[in-house]
Structure formats: structure tokens, C-alpha cells
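re: ur msg from earlier - yeah i can do the zinc ion complex, just paste it... oh wait u already did. ok heres what im feeding in:
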Amino acid sequence: MKILSIETSCDDTCISILEAKGGITNTSFKVLANNTNSQIQIHIPYGGVYPVMAKREHNKNLPILLEASLKEAHLTPTPLLNKERGLGRGIDAIAVTYGPGLEMCLWEGIIFAKELAEKWNVPIIPVNHMEGHVFSVFGKNKGKFIIPKVKAPVLTLLVSGGHTQLVLTKKWMQYEIIGESVDDAVGEAFDKVARMLDLPYPGGPQISAIADIERVKGNQTLFSLPRPMLKSKDFNFSFAGLKTAVLYLIRKIGKLDEETKSKIALEFENAAIECLVYKTYKAIEKYKIKTLIVAGGVACNTHLQEEMKKFLGKKVKLFFPAKGLAGDNSLMIGIAGYLNYIKNKKKVPKPASIKATGSLRL
Ligand code: KG4
Ligand code: ZN
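and the outut:
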């Protein structure tokens, strides 16, 4: 079946079309279209996502992306015309993110999905954005891919701008959050520290880039920042204290030159990643984990990937998202949507009952 997926939970407007086949264990996909309209340039002057502006942009971008995606997939917006051309009825189902995220942005995607579903007489599959991130690691930007058989128990480290969670999966598509940040998400901490260092939004990649410059030079960091909750007996994280420690350090130093900024970034990144890797390691030991998935916007951080490989690569089978699929995208929503559709034996909720749920949990 052909599945159109929509993602508008934050500042990226995304539409994909996937051809999906198979059941819950032998699922394969072919990417027919995968389009993202990034709003980064629009939000840079505000130093972060400006929700009203993001909502307006989604509203403007969705019809444009739909037209481009249908064209790319060689489909028309008219089911009858698709049939005449031997393309089946065109789109068979629509998957849309309904949370978590910014509610006014989520609504834009949901309303758009409802209008299309009514026009085409197809079902809507509501998708949890975080479950999308989990499945993002199996996706490819182009061509065909299959969902591999993974050995349970599976642990997923979800690291994004709004989440830092360790999720245990004993049974396929069932999730138990065993630990999470008690304050800021790790991506949020990267973004806030970047702002303190006068680096543009989004700060994660900027911090990572200047930290890498120092790391490659082999320079040691001059500073020592805390690793909050590193030795706590649970699987929770805390990043607010680390962020505040950076603030105090900057105040103490006074004027920052470029090299000092890079050295602060290096120590901050080392501290944040050490916390993620250590707690993940502890959870792997305790739950005898066989497979580790690292997903979400921060999953593309090179230092995180290298440290995970170095410390955990021999213990577990590791999955990271392909380039371009760590951050928000609709391809992952299409994958999660199809798998849920199959799992629920093609039962879907009534469109009227689908509502944006900003604080939706896994
Ligand atoms: O998953 P995502 O695209 O959106 C949310 O659902 O939040 O994640 C965005 C977050 C931002 O905080 C961004 O700064 C962070 O991911 N990020 C990074 C890197 N690339 C993006 N953080 C650290 N290192 C990176 N290379
Ligand atoms: Zn996300």
C-alpha cells in the first residue's frame, strides 16, 4: 500500500510517500518521495522556534510539499486518474504525527491530513513522534529498505530537543520508559549552551562542530564541568545543572575568545555525552540488552556515536539513524504509521477523535 506521511510537530514541515509491504515481521518499504522544508532561517533571528511563525509556515508549506511529493511519486491528487493510469487509487492511507510537540503546529498537520483523508476516502493513522524516532534507524532516504529482525530486549536512547529517555522494549512495539531527564533535555542543553557562547540556533551542531575542532587538535579541555546524576542508582539524567555550570564558568572568564569558546564546548560535550553513555551502559548490563537504538536529533552527534561504538559496540548490536533521518522527518512517521496499522489489524480511530497532544508519552 502507498502511505503518505505528515510531520509538523516543531519547525520542519515534512511529507513523504512510502510503498509499504509485508506484515509486522517482514516489512519492507520503498521511498517514493521524501521532502522536508526546514524553517531554520526563519527562526534564527529569534534564537529558537517561534511557535506562531512555525504554525504559519506549516500552513503555507504543506500544500506545496504535497504537490511536489505526489509529482515525485508519479501520482496525481485524483484517485480516479491514478486508477486510469494503472497506479491503483494512489494514496491508500495517511499517517500523521499527533504528539508530542507544539500543539498549534501539530494541529496544522492533523487538519491537513483530515482534509485529504476525507477527499480521498482513506484512513488516518495517528503516530507518536517518538515512536517515529525509534523506527528512524531502519530507514533510508532513497530506494528500498527492510525492517531487520532485531534481538530483544531492545534499549532505545531517545535524545532530542524535548526528550532524553531510555526506553526498554521486551516485546516488539511495546515501550517502557526506564529513565529520563528530570529537567532539560540534552538537545535543549546543547541549544542553551550554544546561545551562551553566542552561536546561532540550532546550537547542537554548532557546539559539536567547534568541540570537534579542539578534539581533532588533541587539545585537552582547560575546564572541568560536572556530570550530574552520573552515579545515581536510577536511569535518570539531569542537564540543567551542567548548563548552569557553563553559565557560571562564562561569567568567571569574562570576555571569551574563539579558542576558549571551543574549549568550553569540548568540555560541555564530553560531560553531556559521558552521562548518556554511562547510563546507557548501566541499563544494558541490568536488562541484558541485545540491541541498542540511538535516535532523535542528537543521535547524529559524532562524539556520541563514537563513544557508543567504543564502549558498547561489542556488547550489543547498535543502530543509529542514517544521515538526514536523525532530526525530524516524515519518513519515520510513515514507517511507524504502517507498522501500527498492521499491528492494529488495520483498525484506525475516527478522524474526529484525532487531536494534537503536546505532551504525548511513548
Ligand atoms: O529530534 P529533533 O530534530 O527535534 C525534536 O524533536 O526535538 O532534535 C533537535 C535537537 C536540537 O536540540 C538540536 O540542537 C539537536 O537536536 N542536535 C544536536 C546535533 N544536531 C542536532 N545536538 C548535538 N549534536 C548535534 N550534532
Ligand atoms: Zn523529534
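cool cool. The CA atoms of residues 12 and 328 lie 7 Å apart. ping me if u need the other ligands too
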